[in-house]
């Protein structure tokens, strides 16, 4: 086992402006990088190793703000390429340190055992995010069918001129929002109950948007993937026109990295 | 409103994750936080991620529409062997259905553009309001 950080940074002539080091993810030291992997702003991605660990990094200008569409795409492309090769602990977008060697000394060296344990835990599995969106007309009809008060209000609102029905319309909308909240809860439970048996772990996600029906991330072992996908398809069929299901993945286990060691922030 | 650039025509839409709109919130909000591990060598770099979310969402929507429209051309020219490409569009089984769907897409594209513009307009109006109330106070 090496005890000194060993980086493969391209050599640069003295006098160059000091570049900073953008960090994509942490992998095992024996991970192989896909060839010609370029990162943010076209920087060449390389591994900086410490012991059995390595971090994938590239050099960037320390003064340039980050967050353009290209920056995000580059981050995602590098993490995805890594995750396709090996178990990868992804860093949140925007991780920048002074140098690759400093990264090895300050991040990898003191937490080597912690990282290795986490890599073990997440090995052989990848993340899939499954979310559902309501078909508005179908689900609104459902609410009116199930809630007589909402149905009555709707009749009244239809008969009155717009101004006169102002408060009724507010009340009707309020009832529908409440009914949708309940449906969202029930549908999220159903999504999780259906797919949990085929996953190693589940992380519910905050539903995005008013038409969100359910949203959760699943850590799926590679050997269970086929069964998991079949279960997603069955749920999609069961929900039919009511909820459009969408599965994103395989992803690096963004939702399953544990809190940092030592209970830090 | 759905435009599907994704493969497969089953009940579930699939995306590999390379569609940025699907993962933008994940890469901005999830994953290991560098500050928890690195303090001394941390480089505080400016992140312009609020704009990024809006821009990514709209640009990706535009690209999806462009792509979907493109496929539609192929379909209308009588291309064959494209069942997956047009699976979403031919759900109704007729060309009329496909056309109806296209119109829906264009409307939604307009909505999306409209929303972004409205949002900008609202922000501008809000600024204007604040400015004028400040002026009133100063008087």
Automatic annotation (TrEMBL), chain A:
Tell me where it resides.
Gas vesicle
- GO BP: gas vesicle organization
Note the InterPro entries from the entry.
Answer: GvpL/GvpF
Pfam families per the UniProt record, alphabetical: GvpL_GvpF
Residue ranges the record marks as coiled coil: none
Q: Does the keyword Cytoplasm apply?
A: no
What the record says about family reads: Belongs to the gas vesicle GvpF/GvpL family.
Could you tell me what this protein is called?
A: Uncharacterized protein
TrEMBL record, chain B:
Q: By its UniProt entry, which HAMAP family does this protein fall under?
A: Gas_vesicle_A (MF_00576)
Name of the protein described by the UniProt record: Gas vesicle protein A
Q: Which InterPro entries match?
A: Gas-vesicle_GvpA-like, Gas_vesicle_GvpA, GvpA, GvpA-like_CS
The question of whether Ribonucleoprotein is a record keyword is answered with: no
Q: What does this protein do?
A: Gas vesicles are hollow, gas filled proteinaceous nanostructures found in some microorganisms. During planktonic growth they allow positioning of the organism at a favorable depth for light or nutrient acquisition. GvpA forms the protein shell.
Pfam families in the record: Gas_vesicle
Question: Could you tell me the keywords of this UniProt record?
Answer: Gas vesicle
Bias kind Basic and acidic residues: ranges: 108-139
Instruction: Please state where this protein is localized.
Output: Gas vesicle shell
NCBIfam families listed in its UniProt record: PRK09368.1
Query: Which GO MF terms are attached to this record?
Result: structural molecule activity
What coarse category fits the chief subcellular location reported for this protein?
Answer: other
A single GO cellular-component term on record: vesicle membrane
Q: How does it assemble?
A: The gas vesicle shell is 2 nm thick and consists of a single layer of this protein. It forms helical ribs nearly perpendicular to the long axis of the vesicle.
Region ranges (Disordered): 86-139
* Family statement drawn from the similarity comment of this UniProt entry: Belongs to the gas vesicle GvpA family.
